[in-house]
Design a protein that fits this description.
The chain is α+β, with helices and mostly antiparallel strands. The chain has six helices and eight strands; from the N terminus they run H-H-E-E-H-E-E-E-E-H-H-E-E-H. The termini are far apart. The relative contact order is 0.18.
Length: 201
C-alpha cells in the first residue's frame, strides 16, 4: 500500500460521493474520476473500506479485504454497499445526506501476526477459523478504548467465534490502513439534485 497523495485522497472522496449519489437518487454511476486516475495509484488493486457516519453515529460500513479490483472501483462499490446493503441499517435516505460523513480506509496486504505484536491504533485485525472470519479496523479499538486482549476478543466475536478463539488455534492476521475523510462531504447532493416531493429511497 503506497501512501496516497492529497489529490488521490480527494479523488477517492469524489468517487465515493458519486457512488452514494447514484445509490440514493437511483441513477447510474458515471465516475469520470476512474478514467482520469487510470495512470495513478488508484488503478492498482487494493483493499478498502468505506464507513458512513451520521451525526457521529455509525450509519454503514462495507469493505473489500483482498486486493481484487482497482482501488477506485473498490471504493465506489464499497460506498454504494455501505449506503444501501449493510444489513445492520436501512438504506440511506435522501434527507440524511446533509449529515452524512464518509471515511475511507485503504488497506495494506494482510500478514500473520502474534497476539503480542498487535499494536492498538496501528493494526486492524482479521481473525478466522474454518469458514468463519471477522474483521475490525484499527480505529475501532481506538474509538472504544480497547486494550490488546479486548480487541482480539471483539474480533473473534465479530467472526461468530468464542472470544478466546484467538488463544485456541484461530488464525490472526493484521493490516494497516491509510484513513481519511472530509466532514459533511455529501451535503451538497441533497440541494444539488433533490427535487420537491421526491420520495425517500
Amino acid at each position: 500500500m503506497l501512501p496516497l497523495t492529497e489529490g488521490e485522497q480527494n479523488t477517492l472522496i469524489e468517487i465515493a460521493r458519486h457512488a452514494i449519489e447514484a445509490c440514493v437518487l437511483g441513477g447510474r454511476q458515471t465516475p469520470a474520476e476512474w478514467r482520469s486516475s487510470s495512470a495513478s495509484s488508484l488503478s492498482q488493486p487494493c483493499g478498502a473500506f468505506v464507513t458512513l457516519r451520521r451525526r457521529g453515529a455509525l450509519r454503514g460500513c462495507i469493505g473489500h479485504v483482498e486486493a481484487e479490483r482497482p482501488l477506485a472501483e473498490a471504493v465506489a462499490e464499497c460506498a454504494a454497499a455501505a449506503c444501501a446493503r449493510d444489513p445492520r441499517f436501512p438504506p440511506v435516505a435522501l434527507d440524511e445526506l446533509p449529515d452524512l460523513q464518509v471515511e475511507i480506509s485503504v488497506l495494506s496486504p494482510l500478514f500473520d501476526i502474534l497476539p503480542s505484536e498487535v499494536e492498538i491504533g496501528r493494526h486492524g485485525l482479521l481473525i478466522s477459523q474454518g469458514w468463519q472470519r471477522g474483521l475490525l479496523l484499527p480505529q475501532v479499538a481506538v474509538e472504544w478504548k480497547w486494550e490488546r486482549g479486548h480487541f482480539l476478543e471483539e474480533t473473534c466475536r465479530k467472526a461468530g467465534l468464542p472470544p478466546d478463539a484467538w488463544q485456541r488455534g484461530a488464525r490472526i492476521q493484521a493490516f494497516t490502513t491509510q484513513t481519511f475523510t472530509a466532514p459533511r462531504e455529501v451535503s451538497h447532493l441533497a440541494s444539488a439534485r433533490a427535487t420537491p416531493g421526491r420520495a425517500r429511497l
